[in-house]
Amino acid sequence: MRRHGGWTSARLLGVVAGCFALAFTGCVAVPTSGPVERHSPAAQQADSGVEIAPVPPAQNATPGLIVEGFLHAMATYQEGYSVARQFLTPAAGEQWRPETGVEIYAGGYPPQVSESGVVLTAPLVGRLDGQGTFTPASTQYHHDFGLMRDADGQWRISQPPRGLLISQSLFSSTWVRADVCFWDATGTVLVPDPRFVQKGTLGMAASVRALLVGPSLANRAAYRAPLDPQLEIASVTLGANGVVAVDLTGDVDRVTVEARRKLTAELVWSLASLEGVAGVRVRGNDALWEVGGSAGTVTTADFAQGAPTPQTTSDQVFVVRGGALQRLAWSSPQSEPQPVGPELNRLGAIAARADALEVAAVTDGGTRVRGVAVREGAARVMLSGRGLASVHYTRQGELLVVVDGVRNTPLRMLRDGREVVVDAAGLPGGRIRALAMAPDGVRVALVVEGQGGAVLGVAAITRSAEQIGFVGWRELSGASWAPASQPPIDVGWSSPADLLVLLGGDATPHVVRVDSEGAMATDVGPTDSVAKAQLAVGADSRAALRGSDGQTWRFVDEFTWEPWLPKVQQVSLP
Prior knowledge:
Blueprint: E1 3-4, E2 7-8, E3 10-12, E4 37-39, E5 44-45, H1 63-74, H2 82-85, H3 90-95, E6 102-105, E7 112-114, E8 117-128, E9 134-144, E10 147-149, E11 155-157, E12 164-167, H4 168-171, E13 175-178, E14 181-183, E15 190-192, E16 195-198, H5 201-213, E17 231-238, E18 243-250, H6 257-271, E19 274-275, E20 279-284, E21 287-288, E22 297-298, E23 316-321, E24 324-329, E25 338-339, E26 350-352, E27 358-363, E28 368-373, E29 379-384, E30 388-393, E31 399-403, E32 411-415, E33 418-423, E34 431-437, E35 443-450, E36 453-463, E37 467-475, E38 488-495, E39 498-503, E40 510-515, E41 521-525, E42 532-537, E43 543-547, E44 552-557, E45 560-563, E46 568-572
Parallel strand pairs: 5-19, 6-12, 18-20, 33-37
Antiparallel strand pairs: 1-2, 3-4, 6-8, 7-8, 8-9, 10-11, 13-16, 14-15, 17-18, 20-21, 20-22, 23-24, 23-46, 24-25, 26-27, 27-28, 28-29, 30-31, 31-32, 32-33, 34-35, 35-36, 36-37, 38-39, 39-40, 40-41, 42-43, 43-44, 44-45
Helix pairs in contact: 5-6
């Protein structure tokens, strides 16, 4: 797999990725059925590729051809969608608002032409709102285009959809995901806010404009505030050396030196997610911003401290075997695990801190959380209570504890040894079956069990001195990659904007790699029928499975999981 700036590529199985830019602000990728394709969500194609120019309606075109032409014209961005409007009656053209959003339907369902009109009936696989936010869908779409003749006797559409209506097959040819990065609210770490953009410089401009407009509304409280003053794009060009020249205009003189540095970091990390981008040069009102790098050119290395993934990771693996805490090196899978710390009473779930110097463990039948100092071998009580179920370190050094069976207290948190208030009102009600912190420490993925079954979703964390909260909860379940018959069991982050999800149910349990928007998925196995109980994922994309019988497997590549340690009760990868 290709690695670029810490972001990992993936192969899509039965998935076509597509998206749409709303006035250069965002777009979407949609899961569908189809052949195996290779796709990199983190290292996208920066060249212009093949462009599909929309064609105006032909003279005396039939109703079927008018609708087909309209559908094709909607799939390619044009200023004001002037070509697509030519397929509409004058009144419909005035009322049509393509910027309001997108409805995406499954391929293989052409419009049906009859004496009564032209109708499209197809499974709706996703929706895109005006901000470019994708929501999975699984409903049936039905639309009558209302064909009628105009004053010249030509067939035209009088009932267009409210926004855009596009099939996934047209999406797949020219649009890709861009992992637009914003600083978190504290200004210490860059956090992806994924958008989907057109290939080439058009998509680069869309990514830059997204940064200038600001974070998506749902997550805005967890990210830095929109820029003030508001800047605009003069031009975005890609040089032969892979350096993107970003020329900004507006009230540039009001942008402080520190604000320029912060915006440049966002620009280079966002544009670096597009393949072929090696660096960025920023100018404001024709004046070069010299914020680091060489001769004004900056790369992700110039802002490595705030990278979405921590720069250092541990090779250690921590397991519970025979009720004891042990460790070994991932690079030496055949080595014998070594004991860690003192004997702990009724040891349960564990979590290793990113530096592998401390392990938090649920002990005493879920009534204590103890911290084990790996080098010293000493243990201390960190938290007491009832129903303590699992523990999770954040990048910021906090410890988030899942609580089971205690009314109105699904989560507790320790920060600098003190407990802070956790406001979980922004999360769905139910039992938290699994939780995974993103490498940035700002976003969290959860599997929540309620009366309707288990759902998978992602939210962002807001922090204050005495409290944390959650905003922007987005349910990812319900997409074609997560049918109701295969509910999510466990989840982990394989990269800053991608998840590994363990699916169970009646079918053979297996792992799916899915982006944090729920729009793209890859089945990565394994194919055996042993029930899986736990999925452990490290910040450096390492992954391991634990079966209900205690057998573990190490993830090597798609559908390749090699047998590993037996008799394991818990596993944690820093």
